[in-house]
């Protein structure tokens, strides 16, 4: 088997994790691209501390045509990343999109054919610690739509280190992840608290009320989220380590724009489009837009 040329765009929390995961397969040759050059990142996975050397290009340059480009940037980064897409996506390059939100293919359709783009959902909380490392909270789970292109992507990974699930109903899986990220993320970001807050009843009740609103919008959009979802999520947040953060809280802490449009924002918008009332989510979405002055 020949080596595969794989590019990873956006070497932050998820990009670093994917660099590690894809680097475990010695048939992969990795090319790293990001806004800021760093020479190394430390990943804490279970009790192991892994120092990952990084060779990042911060300006697009044409390496060999990539077989895969893995995009690990946030929705609001896309408008500043067009030069990367133009340069890195060749006629035969397959693109894996990893980010929270919906309609992951949309912004990339002008660069390649729809059949070359693979959407994904990642359940892999990764957070920056006081010891300057990314801590991976549990074994990463990657959810992919059942398809040939997804199967071919999964062969690049070592499934001892990442759990891969193929789903028929990707829309439902996307809404399930969005609901968790928007409900948990907004509560943590607005309170400035980590998951320890969920040992209290009132924040848990707010989390449930938010999920109830979000599920109504998801159902109006055609997702088939079942009744067992909410108790499952409550169990999940209660089981998170008390110091578990979220990507919106980390961005707020660092004074960076938060991902409000891709999370609570899109839910409010779709709620309006479908005539579904989402008063709690709308209030939180409004407050979130004011969290970071660069967002308004
Ligand atoms: N972190 C988490 O636990 C989880 C995150 N997600 C989702 O994954 C996605 C990625 O999140 P995450 O990895 O946390 O984000 P990060 O902010 O940690 O990483 C994004 C990276 O992209 C780089 N970048 C931003 N804009 C550009 C650009 N124009 N050109 C090149 N590089 C750019 C950033 O550079 P710089 O270093 O200069 O900022 C940063 O290194 C999000 O949608 C998030 O919601 C999903 C599950 C869990
Ligand atoms: C689900 C959650 C909150 C896990 O960290 C997430 O996806 C995020 O932080 O963006």
In short:
By secondary structure, the protein is of the alpha/beta class.
> Structural class per helix/strand content?
alpha/beta
In helices, the fraction of residues equals 25-40%
What would CATH call the homologous superfamily of the largest domain? NAD(P)-binding Rossmann-like Domain
Q: Give the N-terminus to C-terminus distance in angstroms.
A: 51 Å
Q: Please summarize the sheet with the most strands.
A: 8 strands, mixed
Q: State the total count of DSSP E strands.
A: 12
Looking at the overall shape, the CATH architecture of the largest domain is 3-Layer(aba) Sandwich
* Helix/strand order, N-terminal first: EHEEEEEHEEEEEHEHHHHHH
* CA gyration radius, whole angstroms: 19 Å
Keywords: NADP, Oxidoreductase, Pantothenate biosynthesis
EC number: 1.1.1.169
Function: Catalyzes the NADPH-dependent reduction of ketopantoate into pantoic acid.
Pfam family, one: ApbA_C
């Amino acid at each position: 088997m020949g080596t595969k040329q794989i590019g990873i765009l956006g070497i932050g929390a998820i990009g670093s994790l994917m660099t590690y995961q894809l680097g475990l397969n010695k048939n992969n040759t990795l090319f790293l691209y990001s806004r800021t050059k760093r020479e190394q990142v430390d990943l804490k996975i279970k009790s192991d501390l892994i120092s990952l050397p990084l060779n990042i290009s911060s300006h697009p340059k044409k390496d060999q045509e990539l077989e895969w480009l893995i995009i690990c940037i946030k929705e609001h980064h896309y408008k500043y990343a067009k030069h990367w897409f133009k340069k890195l996506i060749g006629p035969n390059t397959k693109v894996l999109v990893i980010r929270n939100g919906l309609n992951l293919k949309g912004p990339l359709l002008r660069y390649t054919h729809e059949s070359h783009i693979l959407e994904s959902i990642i359940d892999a909380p990764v957070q920056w610690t006081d010891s300057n490392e990314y801590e991976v909270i549990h074994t990463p789970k990657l959810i992919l739509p059942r398809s040939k292109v997804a199967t071919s992507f999964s062969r690049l990974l070592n499934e001892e280190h990442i759990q891969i699930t193929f789903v028929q109903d990707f829309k439902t899986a996307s809404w399930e992840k969005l609901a968790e990220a928007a409900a948990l993320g907004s509560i943590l970001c607005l309170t400035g608290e980590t998951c320890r807050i969920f040992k209290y009843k009132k924040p848990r009740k707010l989390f449930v009320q938010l999920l109830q609103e979000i599920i109504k919008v998801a159902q109006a959009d055609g997702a088939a989220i079942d009744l067992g979802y909410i108790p499952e999520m409550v169990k999940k947040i209660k089981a998170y380590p008390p110091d578990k953060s979220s990507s919106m809280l980390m961005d707020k802490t660092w004074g960076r724009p938060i991902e409000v449009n891709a999370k609570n924002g899109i839910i409010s918008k779709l709620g309006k489009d479908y005539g579904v009332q989402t008063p709690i989510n709308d209030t939180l979405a409004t407050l979130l837009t004011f969290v970071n002055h660069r967002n308004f």
